[in-house]
Write the C-alpha cells for this entry.
Amino acid sequence: MRTHELPVGRAARFLGVPLTMGLCALALISPVLAQDDRFLDRRRGVGGIYTDAEGHLRDAQVDHVGALARLRAGALAPVPAELGAPAATRRVSLRGLEAAVREALEAGRELPDEVRYLAGLQQIRYVLVYPEHEDIVLVGPGEGWKVDARGNIVGVTTGRPVMLLDDLLVALRTARGAAREPISCSIDPTAEGLQRLRAHVSRLQTIGNPARTARGIEQALGPQQIRITGVPPTSHFARVMVAADYRMKRLAMGFEPSPVAGLPSFLSMVPATGRGMSNMLPRWWLEPEYDPLLRDPDGLAWELRGARVVAMTEEDFLTATGAVEQTGKASPAAERWAANMTEQFDELAVAEPIFGQLRNCMELAVVAALIVKEDLTAKAGYSLPLLTGAEHLQPEEFFAPRQVDTQASLMRRGRNWVISASGGVLVNSWAVVDRVESGEAPARVRAEAAPGETAGWWRN
C-alpha cells in the first residue's frame, strides 16, 4: 500500500501550492466499492466484494451481505458429527481427497461440503509422505464449519476461516511458476492519474468546500489499476488477495474503524505539524513469514513452524512526472503501523475473516511449493492428477478484477495532502521452503499419523 503525500505551501514547492491561512489537509484516497444486486451470485462474492463483467471491483452493503449469509447458510449441508468437534491434528489424505472428488464427479453430484472445505482444516503444520500408501497427508488443526453473519465459512468455535479445495487446486497448479514469479496483487494509481493529480493540486488555493474538493481529487486521480501475478485473476485465491489488500487500505487510512483494539489508523500517526514526509510514499504489503521448515532425515516428514503474516513497509519517492522510485527506507509512522498490523493480525483474522482467508491461501501456496520443490509426489509414487490439473477438475471462476474507483475525504491535519493510492500482497512461497533444518521430531509425527488400511480420506 502506498500513501502519496503531496505537500502544501513552502513544504511542497515542486507543486507550487500556496499555504493559505495556515489551513492544511489530508487528502485520504482509497478504492471505493459500490453495490449491485448481482452480488448475491455466490460465484462472484468474496470477502464482501465482487467484480462485474467489465472487471470493475465493487462492494456490498450490509443488507446484501446479510442476504448472502442467508443464501449460503441455506445451501450448507449439516456438518458430519465426527467432523464437528475441534481437533488439534486433523489429517487429510490427498490421495483420499482425490478419490472423494472423483467419486462425486463420476456420479454427477456436487462436491460434498466436507470436500469443498477440506474437512474443516484451518492450518497445516505437517506435510507427511507415505510411499507405502502412495499418499501425501496434510496435518493441522480443524473443526466443523458454519456461515457467519457476513457469509464467510468459518470454524464453529474459533471463527477462523476453513481452507478451501479451490485454493488448494490453484496453489498446486501455480506452484512451479511461483519459483519464477512470486504470487502477488497490488492496487495502484496510474502514472497518468498521478500527473493529473499533481496538476490539480497545484491549482488549489484553499480547501474550500471539502466535499467538492474531494470529488475533484477523485476525478483527477481516476480509477486505480489492479495487478495480479502468479495465480489466475479469475480465481478465488486472487480475489482473496485483492479483498484483503482493499481492507488493509481502508483500515490504514481510517475509512472504516478497526474491528480490533490496538490498531489505530495510519492517519492518526501522521504528525500534525511540520513538513511531514513531503513526497515520500509509505508503502505496505502483507506476506507470509515462517521459521525454517523442519524435515526428517529421509525427507518424508516436514513441519511448518512459526507461521505468521507480517505487514512490511518501505518508502517510495514520487517524482514530479508521477513516476515512483524505491528508496529502501521507511518512515517511523509507517513502521509503527506495520508493526501494529503484524501484532494484531491473528485477532484481525477472526474479526475480519478475509485476512484469515488470506493466511490460508498463503499457507496452501507454501505447502504446494514444498510439494513441487522436493518432488514429494514422486517420493509418494502418486502424481495427484486431479489436484494438479492433469485430469479435468476446474476451480470456480469469478470475473477478473481490473480496476476500482478512488475515494477521497479531507481533514485538517499537518502541512500536507496525504494520498493513499495503492496496496499489496506478496507470497514468495519458494523463499519460505528454501529455509530448512533437519530433525527427528517430524518422523515421530509421521509414524503416529500413518493412514490405516480402511480409514477414510480424513481422520482426527
User: Anything to note?
Assistant: The two ends are 40 Å apart (CA to CA).
